[in-house]
């Protein structure tokens, strides 16, 4: 993000987009689409985010294309975020973690999106493996879809989403001002943690000067005033924020800057359909990425 700015390009090979690119809705069409997007993104976006379901829809052939896409992104020096939105009970979560975050997996990505709605601690195997292999996680907190509110906003100023974000902050070494000193291991953190261990008004960051932690949060750029209404203060998060909703879902760069007013430099905005609609020409794709990236950078570079 420091080198290439705040844009993540989603690789979302919707059948309609394949058609617009004059590609068949086959594994071959999928491969051309994904690799061309990686080629365009290299040096023009901080990360690409392949949407796993749109590959999975082609079965094993789709997964083979996804494996190749992740390999090519790594070879081109583009960070990859596998948008798999995984979350499961602990024992099987370990297998998901291994698929997306272990060094020897053919599907290894630099980071993976996770759903904490089976309980944040159910994600522990993935958080631990990411830490061991130097990768990252992005935990869904306030999603960009309107239906998310019916679960995530529950509790009001003591909301479910606020609890998830407090847990993410703890992963990144942020602790409440009046809690016992944080142990260095995540387990130690948990042991001292009451349900409301991270009073969101009072979190302090123990490693601000050391850069962002590896546990990110997903917060849609379309959440509007929700952060304010739920009294969620993102300043103690100390991790990157993946913000989908920019572009096709209606949020422009000004809206992204408004929603993330106090943490703008930590935001990585995702655009999928909006950028991809400029394909199949690589140069047009790149121009669209550059425009989005510059527009976002102008609004997000300062807190
Ligand atoms: O985790 C995600 O990436 C995600 C979370 C969320 O809250 N909202 C959201 O739109 N996304 C993903 O971000 C992408 C948005 O695509 P566009 O609306 O085409 O830019 C899709 O791949 C979604 O699955």
UniProtKB/TrEMBL annotation:
It is an enzyme of class 4 (lyase). It catalyses: orotidine 5'-phosphate + H(+) = UMP + CO2. One of its GO terms (biological process) is 'de novo' UMP biosynthetic process. It comes from the Bacteria. Keywords: Decarboxylase, Lyase, Pyrimidine biosynthesis. Residues 6-288 form the Orotidine 5'-phosphate decarboxylase domain. Gene3D superfamilies: Aldolase class I. CDD domains: OMP_decarboxylase_like (cd04725). InterPro entries: Aldolase_TIM (IPR013785), OMPdecase_type-2 (IPR011995), OMPdeCOase_dom (IPR001754), RibuloseP-bd_barrel (IPR011060). Pathway: Pyrimidine metabolism; UMP biosynthesis via de novo pathway; UMP from orotate: step 2/2. Pfam families: OMPdecase (PF00215). Its EC number is 4.1.1.23. GO terms for molecular function: orotidine-5'-phosphate decarboxylase activity. SMART domains: OMPdecase. NCBIfam families: pyrF_sub2 (TIGR02127). Belongs to the OMP decarboxylase family. Type 2 subfamily. PANTHER family: OROTIDINE 5'-PHOSPHATE DECARBOXYLASE (PTHR43375). This is Orotidine-5'-phosphate decarboxylase.
């Amino acid at each position: 993000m420091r080198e290439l700015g705040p844009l993540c390009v989603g690789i979302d090979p919707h059948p309609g987009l394949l058609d617009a690119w004059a590609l068949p809705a086959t594994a071959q069409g999928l491969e051309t689409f994904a690799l061309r997007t990686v080629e365009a993104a290299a040096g023009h976006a901080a990360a690409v985010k392949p949407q796993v379901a749109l590959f999975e829809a082609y079965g094993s052939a789709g997964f083979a294309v996804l494996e190749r896409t992740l390999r090519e992104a790594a070879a081109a020096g583009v960070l990859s975020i596998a948008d798999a939105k995984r979350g499961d009970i602990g024992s099987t979560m370990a297998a998901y973690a291994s698929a997306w975050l272990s060094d020897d997996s053919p599907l290894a990505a630099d980071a993976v999106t996770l759903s904490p709605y089976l309980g944040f601690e159910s994600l522990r195997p993935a958080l631990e493996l990411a830490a061991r292999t130097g990768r990252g996680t992005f935990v869904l907190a306030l999603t960009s879809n309107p239906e998310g509110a019916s679960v995530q906003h529950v509790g009001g100023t003591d909301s479910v989403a606020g609890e998830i974000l407090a847990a993410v902050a703890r992963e990144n070494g942020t602790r409440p001002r009046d809690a016992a000193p944080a142990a260095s291991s995540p387990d130690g953190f948990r042991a001292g943690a009451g349900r409301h261990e991270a009073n969101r008004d009072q979190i302090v960051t123990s490693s601000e000067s050391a850069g962002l932690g590896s546990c990110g949060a997903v917060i849609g750029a379309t959440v509007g005033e929700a952060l304010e209404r739920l009294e969620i203060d993102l300043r103690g998060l100390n991790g990157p924020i993946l913000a989908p909703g920019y572009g096709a879902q209606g949020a422009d760069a000004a809206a992204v800057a408004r929603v993330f007013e106090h943490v703008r430099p930590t935001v990585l905005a995702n655009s999928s359909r909006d950028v991809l609609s400029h394909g199949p020409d690589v140069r047009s794709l790149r121009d669209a990425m550059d425009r989005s990236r510059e527009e976002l950078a102008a609004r997000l570079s300062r807190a």
